[in-house]
Amino acid sequence: MSPTLSPRLRAVADLVIPEEAAADIGCDHAQLAAWWVASGTVPRAIASDVRPGPLAQARRSLDAAGLTGVEIRQGSGLATLRPAEVSTIAIAGMGGHLIVEILRAHPEIVGTARRVILQPNTAWEHVRRWLSDRHAVLDAESLTDDAGHTYLTVAFRPTARGGPWSEADIVLGPRLRRERPPALAAWVARRREHLETLAVRLASELGPGHPRVDEVKRELHRLDAAAA
Ligand SMILES: C[S@@+](CC[C@H](N)C(=O)[O-])C[C@H]1O[C@@H](n2cnc3c(N)ncnc32)[C@H](O)[C@@H]1O
Q1: One domain, residues 198 and 146
Q2: Does residue 173 fall inside a structural domain?
């Protein structure tokens, strides 16, 4: 197994609650769980995925590395866990819609974890709306640049309820908005440019009054209002 993690996965790994059992849902190669245990950060980890192929490969890699302490389980989402079995649950490298589906399917598992770490590779706002609906309290929220992409990582405390989220919190993230890391300004600039280019292209293809053009312009205004 690789002794190092990519910056993206390291952002997830570092948020685990140390010295307590953790689970990686949608583990694929199981690198995250292997790193947690091999580094001595947690004593025991569960690596779970819906597909048998990656799990067989992960099993071989773990055996070759002589790494005990990582238990492999096959199944969909959080169905492989029992309530309160682990302190940390990580779900990374999936689309935001799938992540929310997985979280919604097993409230009894989410609600008995001490920390849940999410790294959606699409639909960040969809994930934030789900968090906002439960008045979630974020322990961490960061942006990581890795191999030409920017990754969002959030950690929340399922047992805590905070204040309501604003629309700007949904667009930019409540902690990122407050902390304003340089990666946020870069992300806003790229997103602005993308929306502006899209609005011009759609206006020329569909006509300037087309509803899709208005929709993109509204999105641009939301972004500007949140970033102001
Ligand atoms: C792109 S990989 C990400 C692997 C790793 N988490 C990472 O961030 O590098 C997505 C993994 O999620 C798994 N997956 C997709 N839907 C799932 C589900 N409902 N339950 C568990 N795993 C799922 C896929 O089989 C795949 O191995």
Answers
A1: no
A2: no
Closest CA to 116 of 73, 72, 160, 151: 160
Q: Report how far residue 91's alpha carbon sits from residue 103's, in angstroms, rounded to the nearest whole number.
A: 9
Does any ligand 1 atom lie closer than 6 A to the CB of residue 25? yes
pLDDT digits (tens, 9 = 90+) for 83-130: 999 999 999 999 999 999 999 999 999 999 999 999 999 999 999 999
Cβ–ligand 1 distance for 27 under 6 Å, the answer yes
36: CATH: 3.40.50.150
Residue 98's nearest CA partner among 73, 81, 115, 123 is: 123
Indicate whether residue 49 lines ligand 1 (CB < 6 A): yes
Tokens of 19: 């010295």
- The pTM (predicted TM-score) of the whole model is 0.96
Provide block-wise average pLDDT over 10 residues at a time, the chain (228 residues). Answer: 85 98 97 96 98 96 93 98 98 98 98 98 98 97 96 97 96 97 96 97 95 96 95
- Closest residue to atom 3 of ligand 1, CA basis: 93
